[in-house]
Structure formats: structure tokens, C-alpha cells
């Protein structure tokens, strides 16, 4: 499993781990009953605290994404992919709405904001 940590990001490392694991589940790279690396193994690979990995795993379990079996490891749980995709969509919509509101507070008109979004999307 490939996880990349951005140490310069304002996003906490445990959240970065969570988001990348969720993305791998949604994309089908991780499937139901796949085992995740142990907390120690992941911490060693990423050169971070085991407590950080544990926090990510605990939060994934609290969200119903994984199941931890004592002595056996952490596994991908059966999940509703459509529900997860809708949740991600709502998060992105909220971020976009916040960006639009910020642009308006800075005096930008709708067309200016739209052209910025088009410019950003050209890079895709």
C-alpha cells in the first residue's frame, strides 16, 4: 500500500493517512477483507510515530471503513462506496463554496471567479 505524507501540509498526518486509505478503498485498490499494514510497520515505513498511525486506524474504524481484530490486524470493512463518494462530494462542494465566498469578499465578480476555476481545471 502506497501512502505519501506531506510534512509541509497544514493537514494533520493522521488525516492524510485516512484520506489516502479511503481513496484506495473507493478506487477499488483496497477491497473488503484486505489487511492493512500493522501500526508498527506503517509507522516504520513512513518514519512517523506509531501513535499517529494508530489514530488514523482508530478513526477509520470509527467511520466504519475498517475493522480491527485483536491479535489479527486491521481489515477493510464492507462499505457503501456510493455513500463514501457522496460524502467526498459534499466536502469538495463545501470547499468550493468557501472559495467562492472568499472571492466575493475580495470584490471579485462571478465571471472572474468562474475564469479562475476554468484556469485551474485546464491543468487537469
Automatic annotation (TrEMBL):
Species per Swiss-Prot/TrEMBL record: Oliverpabstia intestinalis
Gene3D superfamilies the UniProt entry points to: Winged helix-like DNA-binding domain superfamily/Winged helix DNA-binding domain
UniProt KW Transcription keyword: yes
Protein name: GntR family transcriptional regulator
A Pfam family that the UniProt record links to this protein: GntR
Cleaved signal peptide residues: none
Ranges where the HTH gntR-type domain occurs: 11-79
Keyword tags: DNA-binding, Transcription, Transcription regulation
Molecular-function GO terms, alphabetical: DNA binding; DNA-binding transcription factor activity
Amino acid at each position: 500500500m502506497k501512502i505519501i505524507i506531506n510534512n509541509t501540509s497544514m493537514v494533520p498526518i493522521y488525516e492524510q493517512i485516512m484520506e489516502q486509505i479511503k481513496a484506495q478503498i473507493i478506487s477499488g485498490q483496497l477491497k473488503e477483507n484486505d489487511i492493512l499494514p500493522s501500526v508498527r510497520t506503517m509507522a516504520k515505513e513512513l518514519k512517523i510515530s506509531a501513535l499517529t498511525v494508530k489514530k488514523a486506524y482508530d478513526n477509520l474504524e470509527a467511520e466504519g471503513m475498517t475493522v480491527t481484530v485483536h491479535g489479527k490486524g486491521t481489515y477493510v470493512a464492507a462499505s457503501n462506496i456510493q455513500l463514501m463518494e457522496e460524502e467526498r462530494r459534499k466536502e469538495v462542494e463545501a470547499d468550493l463554496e468557501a472559495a467562492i465566498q472568499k472571492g466575493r469578499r475580495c470584490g471579485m465578480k462571478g465571471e472572474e471567479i468562474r475564469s479562475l476555476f476554468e484556469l485551474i481545471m485546464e491543468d487537469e
